Amino acid sequence: MRLLFPLLLAAILVVATTGSEEEFLNQIHALQPRYGGGGTPVQGLSCLSWRLSVEAHNIIDWKTVPQACKDYVGHYMLGHQYRKDSEAVVDEALVYAQSLQLGGDGKDLWVFDIDETTLSNLPYYAKHGFGVEPYNSTLFNLWVDDGKAPALPESLKLYGKLLSLGLKVVFITGRPESQRNVTTKNLHKAGYHTWEKLILKESSYTGYTAVAYKSSERKMLEKDGYRIAGNIGDQWSDILGTYVGNRTFKLPDPMYYIS
Amino acid sequence: MRLLFPLLLAAILVVATTGSEEEFLNQIHALQPRYGGGGTPVQGLSCLSWRLSVEAHNIIDWKTVPQACKDYVGHYMLGHQYRKDSEAVVDEALVYAQSLQLGGDGKDLWVFDIDETTLSNLPYYAKHGFGVEPYNSTLFNLWVDDGKAPALPESLKLYGKLLSLGLKVVFITGRPESQRNVTTKNLHKAGYHTWEKLILKESSYTGYTAVAYKSSERKMLEKDGYRIAGNIGDQWSDILGTYVGNRTFKLPDPMYYIS
């Protein structure tokens, strides 16, 4: 059976072109070699397949980027594709946002995660293996405390347009309360000048997953009468759980996983 | 602000190489041209970005593949990448399945969707524009009634290993009850020789989404004492909703969307 599929694949081009079942049958053996042993999957890790599986949440709870994919992820993050992938997500979010009928009471919210969503830590990760190196909280917090993280331009564009549509913005980040001041300064410096709330992770959530912490904070927003129209983040833990919002958007992030 | 990010990107390679903040600052302007106007995203639809956004469930409720991506999707589906992407998902599913502690009472289930998961309709879609043409139920049902759909080889491999691990398999498909016989024959012909249940969509579910129908059927399985250890499908509607299972897996499908 495992052979039939590639044989059919091999024949498909002919069928697709001619639509002739006869030619389909006659061409199978002639075509098979063109597909490298009948389309047998190439062995070894495909970094593109790994990234797709990460973005579709098939690969979960991973600790670091596979060493074999360090250059792939680096080139992806520094090249056009990461930007184009982010743009495709934001364009879809804008189409959705523009279709919304707002309540007019200032209670329609859009939730943004911060790291790798609102702000980009790419300058840091570019110096630390693009996710191949294990997370180093000391070094990462030194970078955060510098307050120099740039905006992810596509998210800044979404932010501006959502505000102009009349939505309120709430940031929910896994950063601790102790980083409130530097985070506020960094947001302003990066071009984010107003928000309804900036929610950082209080020490009472220590030991809780991001899914639990963020779900709990979103629940409180809804209890306060807010309606979460949209929710965007680079981690599945930003958009899974409860009270996730009317629609969620997953920005690309092949550098790290937070559960 | 929109300029700072690409400028930083432009400088990152230097920083990444030398780790020198001074050089970082000094090189920004010199490096900028290397990034085509500072890394401004290339305009126009990126079919790779479109596919990623579809697989990550950012783009939803789409009717047909964008005309501009017909060749891209065709090459993807007929080439190695679709097979490698499917293999990456199945490999992850197997790592998970092998880690399971089964109850030993024959109640541990794995749920498979059928079309583009257990069986492949690629021979049909290759003759109908790889998803660019609007869905034609008459022509598609003629293809289904032929009962010649091959197995998706990666899913057949997963199926066999799950059975050998002691899991039971249940198929839940959006195909109607009227296609039970041909579906049963096709499954056997494709190499699927045993299953706990084959659940097709009864007429009572007419008008219900796939998410509602499949959630309802999974709930009944759990009520019957089964434990859904895993659930795999090519559509998000296979793995969203309720009683989705302990872990879900999304196979690639850039050809159509079912809500």
From TrEMBL, chains A, B:
Pfam families listed in its UniProt record: Acid_phosphat_B
Gene Ontology molecular function: any one: nutrient reservoir activity
SUPFAM superfamilies: HAD-like
Keywords: Glycoprotein, Signal, Storage protein
Signal peptide: 1-19
Membership in a protein family: Belongs to the APS1/VSP family.
NCBIfam families: plant-AP
Record's function text: May function as somatic storage protein during early seedling development.
Full protein name: Acid phosphatase
Organism: Actinidia chinensis var. chinensis
